[in-house]
Amino acid sequence: MINLKKIELELSTYCNAKCPLCARTQFIDDVKLEHILLKDIIRLFPTLESCENKQFKFCGVLGDPLMNPEILEITKYIVRNNGYCNISTNSGIQTEQFWSELGKLSAETKNVYVHFAVDGFEETNHIYRVNTDFNIISRNMQAYFEGGKGNMLGGWTYIIFDHNEHEVELAKKRATELNLDFVIRTGMRNSLSACSTAKVSDKTEHTKAKKFKELQKKVETETVSKEIIDSVVCKYVHEDEIFISGHLKLFPCCFLWDSYFKNKENIRQKLAFDNPDWNNLKTNSINEVLQHKYYKTVLQESWNPSHNKHLKRCLLTCANNKLYHNQLFFK
Fold first, then answer.
1. CA nearest 66: which of 12, 124, 122, 139?
2. How many structural domains are present in the chain?
3. Does residue 181 belong to any structural domain of this protein?
4. Which of 22, 34, 175, 181 has the greatest number of beta carbons closer than 10 A?
5. Whole domain around residue 130: which residue ranges?
């Protein structure tokens, strides 16, 4: 498989939550419900070589990977082939038995890490993670811990909002009891949002928010210097990473899938080329898609605003050494 180190998989476009800033919540009527199945994974990654020492991230734009009924089997398949699975979830899904088995698999192999995306404690988590039940989340965390006998790998990732700041120490204490890393996540999207249930104070906003606004002004007014173009750190070009959507389409990253789903900047027409299905993994292999001219030359060339397939999103999310990206602080 062509020089890949990381594969992000949107295993499902189903979700139990309705987080207000999520593309799924904002465009719910446009979401086509699908799962990536075990048979798809085996077809796309059929050999030990195609999985071995690669990082598989189960996250996505439109859904929670734990909604996929075959996620445990998919995780076991990748781990058996010496791949690493990083699973990001709102944690309010699946049974105690499932979580116990996943914890055991993590402890025994050290190839599974679960990111529990829980933004608050009992009093506040549901305010942003709408429709989730903290009692179920707490039960699942406990089952993961007990299944792995405390030796599993995982972390509690907590976005600090104005409404949940007072519960940080409670969450941190519980994370320590469950042998989970405790991580504060600061997102640029959250720092720039005007959403009342996602407000962040100055002291908890993204530390590069002001610099991003300066970059945004330049990109929006098309006063983009060569220095800005050369500062792009692309997940595909520079980090050997790809993103596979829940509909089995291959993109350079989750950001461009998000834009494609919303059809921002007329991206669907720009990336149609002569065949709109050129990046469809239902009919093509990963290698075949990555041999397309888009990945060979056009992607990198299109960072220049003068290019006919230019997308501002590339500069906004990945210029200035990925200025926009989330910040993680281990506590």
1. 12
2. 1
3. yes
4. 175
5. 6-201+235-296+326-330
